[in-house]
Amino acid sequence: MQKRGKKTKSARASRTAKPRGRGTPVRRAAGRKPPAGKAAGKSRRAGRGQAERTLLAAAAIAKATARAQASVRAELGSKSLVAEKMAEDALNEAQELGLLLDDPDDDEEEPTEGPGEENAYFIKAPPLGPPHARVRPAPGIESGKIPPLRVKPTRGASRRAGGARAGGARAGAAAKGSAKDARLEPGGGMPAGPAAHLFPRNLKLTYPVAVRAEGVWIEDENGKRYLDGCSGAVVCSIGHGVEEIARVMTAQARRLAFTHSSQFITREAMELTRRIAALAPGDMKKTGRVYLVSGGSEAVETAIKLARQYQIEAGRPSKHKIISRWQSYHGSTLGALAATGNVARREPYTPLIASTPHIAPCYCYRCPYGMEFPSCAIACVDDLETTITREGPDTVAAFMAEPVVGATLGAVPAVDGYWQRAREICDRHDVLLIADEVMTGVGRTGKNFAIDHFKVVPDIITTGKGLSAGYAPLGAVIARGFVTDALAAGRGYFEHGFTYSANPLSSAVGNAVLAYVEKHGLIARAAKMGRTLGERLGTLMRHAMVGDVRGMGMMWGVELVKSRSTKKPFAPALKVSRRVYDACIDEGLVIYPGSGTREGKDGDHFIIAPAFTITEKEIDTLVQRLERALARVSSGLPR
Q1: 464-504 per-position pLDDT tens digit
Q2: What does the DSSP 8-state code read for residue 639?
Q3: φ and ψ at 192, to 5 degrees?
């Protein structure tokens, strides 16, 4: 007589040896605790059948429903809010029923559809830890506007049918807590959930999780909508979610996503450089050469090295210094950081960066000489000639400055005559003039480049941000013909490069963005709507803490002061610009805050720079929310 234990083992071996095809382990509902011990295991295997069949059947129905709803959505079109809601409900239902966790104690298998099937998104990989919030691919860029009605995301089975299904209440509770886990907790501790390995810009802040955006609106995972009042970091000039750009990205990725610039050139890069040169001032339109990179810091690094190599090829090898200005920002890489005049951003890395001469900024609100324009005769630009003379004209390669100072001063434009004088001084000493237009280029100030306001042609222009409007990493350096001619006549190549220089995918995106800007007349619109925005922001002067409102086009800065009459700033410890930012986030508005406005030590400001496509009604909404935020912060500050 065969022993029962052996019979059971043999039977199980025979059963598990049967071919299963594309099978996966049986999964159990989230929140259900496995029975302990052999008896519990036998009882579980004997008693699970009917419950699992019911649950799996429900999951299959939900999956089929999701597929059907997707078909309905396709028929009705992506602009249909009804179809969107139906598809979302079906997806939530399918995930709540069908996303079962692996049971590591069970070796039985049930056939499931393979990962290549259309419902593969409903199969969840074995968990690496405790159950956490559901994660699914972010929705693609869709046409139509984000509906103004906020549909709260479903969190767990307990939200449906009163949590009557097995494990529903526990799963619902787990999902409810997971939204908090997806963000960083204050204090810098290691967060739980999906954000556990993310290294954020600030380890002590809690960030909302963005899931979609369109136009000037960003929506987070909880359905809250924020008016993007600063285009991120003054980047998204054409607005979020433009379908034409998404189509180009997809087509280009299929056709040609990458080639190295040392091995090939591409049609996409050639066309983009043609478009960029066409936007440039003066003779750059015909003789300018454009070097493509992946962003602003790379563009500035490129410009610095290009200026140095030009001087070598021109027979002036002792020229190597780059003069820039205090209270400027040129980038995060070491060369760009050396040119940067933001004291706080430089300080930790001072031992690593080259000693670079800086001059006073053109900052009339807080004139470093205590003078007023125009009686000052633009004394600040005279500092350029003084510094060139002091450093030695035979050592200075270039002077670099922002036509409108962005991050560190808050949209401060130069006065009329500044750039004209700078041009004359540079010409007199064989110094290249570099305009850093990473933030202001491609229409942000209402002209192609901010330097156009001053009717000056620099020798080199750096640009970025608006070049791709945030849809892909992209930057560029535009050099006048005589600069690149010197390299061609010398060693014949530029001793410089990046892996993603002239990347065809980014180049295709840049072409699409510039075509969109041209097609819709967005630079002219930036000039027109910029006047409206400036007028509306001028009303903020009714708040005692607002000391100055300045800017041009779609780039405006607001400086905050403790005393308007004395221009005395708030104490740095109060972090006033951050308080205003936080209050704006509560109001559903995103601004770009800054500090160290006065000589890099104290002072607060913020930038308002929405997409060129913003409407007058949205500008009114922006200012109203900003008004409320300023009032809240003002009432909470110490007197």
Answers
A1: 999 999 999 999 999 999 999 999 999 999 999 999 999 99
A2: -
A3: -100, 170
